[in-house]
Design brief:
Strand content of chain B: 35-45%
Number of strands of chain B: 27
Largest sheet of chain B: 15 strands, antiparallel
Radius of gyration of chain B: 30 Å
Distance between the termini of chain A: 78 Å
Largest interface: A-B, 79 and 74 residues
Number of strands of chain A: 17
Radius of gyration of chain A: 23 Å
Strand content of chain A: 25-35%
Helix content of chain A: 10-25%
Number of helices of chain B: 6
Largest sheet of chain A: 8 strands, mixed
Distance between the termini of chain B: 30 Å
Structural class of chain A: mainly beta
Structural class of chain B: mainly beta
Number of helices of chain A: 5
Oligomer: heterodimer
């Protein structure tokens, strides 16, 4: 008679993240572990071979051979993708986040990121006193993909949530379990802040040790709304049932607005078309590339939105 | 749902004592790193109050602080310092150490070191001339484990051709069951010297009242070991008593030669500098060893993953056009793979993480309890 398998209890050594250490050092009671989540960021599920000729035992052979890295202590680098609990075990489709650039006001620069003009000079040459501004055309229109980081106009970043599949009609309601009602937005606080479409600044929850600001955006506030359009519509990027929509702009930080220090430290230089008559003129600009990350609290879905901050060189 | 709350039954605090064996061979302490007859791993200071022993030439960043050595005698000692005897500094060292390790009496006076820890015994066993060996916190960690301390010292006359022929083993014999708690710096044990060579008649050298006999072996009280402070205090008289009569084959009771003079132990205390006193001891160390103790406080978080939880993933590769890759039809079991545990606070801030050594398959037909241990 063999021994019973007693391997069900797994013991792991935990390491504090840098942010955890910071909170521990603060001693203000915020270091209190109250919940856990499970991550699987090393796993590439495309390796799951449902059609393996040797049978189901071989479906996940390659996944189980995935080497696992030691823990990162940077809180922003860990637990990027998390396992989810849904009571319904028969779900075949799960929601995703998609950048909705179907309308001109939501488009990125062609094949590029969203661009935030960090100050008035980069926006429109200080109100048109110069034609070196890069966010507007010669006739004063805001260019595709540009946000005005000082005057808070221009492109709106729009992210839609839902089942992006043609196999399920958008007429079907998204289960409440799958409808995201709250999002965490992360942005480098040295570079920018989040504002709604009316230009109202959002309040961040906290800023971690790496200067990443975390904002919570909830359904019903000025950032998140329900997407009630249930028709096939070229303005929609989610083909199936739709959940919620998040819209925001980015305000450039005071540092970027007033100084080129961070541009020189973190970025580079390039040229962008400016507002010179004839449309052929260019301005040399300093830039910093970053990502704004939006993560669903309930469903764990995540999207990284590429953003470039620019300032005249 | 991404997060699962931990309730009070999922969190437990534990305390574990970890021990490491610390062996310090005499060759590290003296003899291995020498340039022009001067040790490279022993640092002397202009103030001359103590010297520091490293495990490697101290100018190197690879060197670790091992211990310090100093000595002193009480102003109540019968010794009178000679011209180079640094009497004030030695008195100060004794006073400092006594103040720190033994404390004050009811009238506020600093008490003397006592061989058996009975501070109310007015006569006989006060240690008025002492060597002090404070060990580095790097080695001691939280404390020295009781009944593990051992120091082997050469008791031959100075500069014999074959050192360590006759040795003395100093240990905290029986200290795990017999130690003292009347020190301001915590627990301490009594150090006993055992004559390894059987040529030193401990009892007949006037030591009868300082002898403890275990299994017919005589042990002589010779100092104190302060466990939490990580400091050993040796009475100078341990050498004095043993070396009063010349050893077999020796012509005199030479404890140390300072370069020009043969000195007995009392002479060393009276007329040598503190650095020379320390060197006289270091030359006689054959071995030091002890076990340290690290008090590890842990919080264990029992992350209970039930059969109906965490079966799906938000990993972008989990979906293809929003369709779950690991399923062919909706009635197939969902499958996910765990590689990381994240521990969060109420504000969803990631405070700690732990990794599995390999991906762990999770499906509705499996469940786990993962014990995540956070050590402080």
């Amino acid at each position: 008679m063999g021994f019973l398998d007693n391997s069900g209890d797994i013991i792991l050594d935990v390491v504090l993240t840098d942010h955890g250490r910071m909170l521990l050092a603060k001693g203000d009671g915020t270091f209190q572990i109250t919940k856990f989540a499970l991550g699987d960021e090393e796993i590439d599920y495309s390796l799951y071979d449902k059609n393996h000729s040797s049978g189901s035992a071989y479906y996940d052979l390659q996944i189980l051979q995935t080497p696992i890295l030691e823990a990162f202590t940077n809180n922003a680098s860990s637990m990027k993708t998390r396992l989810q609990t849904y009571t319904n075990l028969e779900l075949l489709f799960l929601p995703v986040l998609r950048l909705n650039d179907s309308m001109q006001i939501n488009e990125t620069v062609t094949n590029g990121p969203f661009i935030v003009a960090a100050d008035a000079a980069a926006e429109d040459g200080n109100g048109g006193s110069s034609d070196q501004g890069v966010a507007v055309t010669e006739d004063g229109k805001i260019r595709q993909g540009f946000m005005l980081g000082e005057s808070l106009g221009g492109t709106i970043i729009k992210v839609d949530q839902g089942l992006d599949t043609t196999e399920v009609s958008p007429k079907r309601r998204l289960d409440d379990d799958l409808k995201e009602t709250s999002y965490i937005l992360q942005i480098d606080n040295r570079l920018g802040k989040i504002v709604d479409t009316q230009g109202t600044l959002a309040a961040f929850d906290y800023i971690d040790d790496d200067n990443i600001a975390y904002y919570t955006l909830d359904l019903g506030d000025t950032f998140v709304s329900e997407n009630t359009n249930d028709t096939k519509d070229p303005k929609e990027v989610i083909d199936g049932p739709r959940g919620t929509r998040t819209e925001f702009r980015i305000q450039s930080s005071m540092d970027l607005n007033t100084s080129s220090f961070l541009f020189e430290q973190l970025g580079g230089t390039t040229t962008l078309a400016n507002a010179e008559a004839g449309g052929a003129g260019t301005s040399s600009v300093l830039f910093i590339d970053t990502n704004v990350r939006l993560t669903g609290v309930k469903t764990g879905v995540m999207i990284d939105v590429p953003v470039r901050f620019v300032r005249l060189a | 749902m991404t997060f699962k709350p931990l309730n009070e039954n999922d969190i437990v605090n534990t305390r574990t004592l970890l021990h490491e064996a610390i062996p310090l061979t005499g060759s590290i302490i003296s003899g291995s790193y020498v340039t022009n007859a001067a040790p490279d791993n022993i640092k002397y200071y202009p103030h001359g109050m103590f010297q520091t022993v490293y495990d490697y030439p101290y100018a190197s960043s690879s060197a670790n602080h091992v211990f310090d050595v100093t000595c002193g005698f009480s102003s109540q000692s019968a010794l009178v310092a000679g011209p180079n005897g640094m009497e004030t500094k030695k008195n100060n060292i004794y006073g400092q150490m006594a103040q720190l390790l033994v404390g004050y009496n009811a009238t506020g006076s600093v008490q003397l070191f006592d061989e058996d820890g009975n501070l109310f015994d007015p006569v006989g066993d006060k240690m008025k001339e002492i060597f002090v060996v404070p060990f580095s916190r790097l080695l001691v960690k939280d404390e020295i484990k009781k009944e593990t301390f051992q120091m082997i010292l050469d008791v031959d006359t100075h500069a014999t051709t074959q050192p360590f022929t006759n040795t003395l083993t100093i240990s905290d014999l029986g200290a795990s069951n017999e130690y003292r708690v009347n020190s301001p710096v915590g627990e301490y044990g009594i150090l006993y010297a055992e004559d390894n060579s059987s040529i030193l008649d401990l009892v007949n050298h006037g030591n009868a009242d300082r002898i403890k006999t275990v299994d017919s072996v005589d042990y002589l009280r010779c100092g104190l070991i302060f466990y939490q402070a990580g400091i050993a205090v040796l009475t100078g008289s341990v050498f004095g008593n043993l070396l009063t009569t010349p050893l077999a084959g020796a012509t005199s009771e030479i404890f140390y030669n300072d370069g020009s003079n043969d000195l007995g132990i009392d002479d060393v205390f009276a007329s040598s500098s503190i650095d020379d006193c320390g060197s006289s001891l270091l030359h006689r160390v054959q071995n030091i060893q002890f076990n340290n103790t690290t008090e590890l406080n842990s919080t264990v978080y029992f992350c209970r993953v039930n059969h109906n939880e965490f079966n799906y993933s938000s990993n972008p590769t989990y979906l293809e056009n929003s369709r779950v890759r690991v399923k062919t039809q909706s009635t197939d079991e969902p499958v996910s793979y765990i590689t990381t545990i994240g521990l969060y606070n109420d504000r969803n801030e990631l405070l700690a993480t732990a990794k599995l050594s390999e991906a762990l398959k999770k499906s509705p037909s499996t469940e786990f309890t993962i014990r995540a241990r956070l050590d402080y």
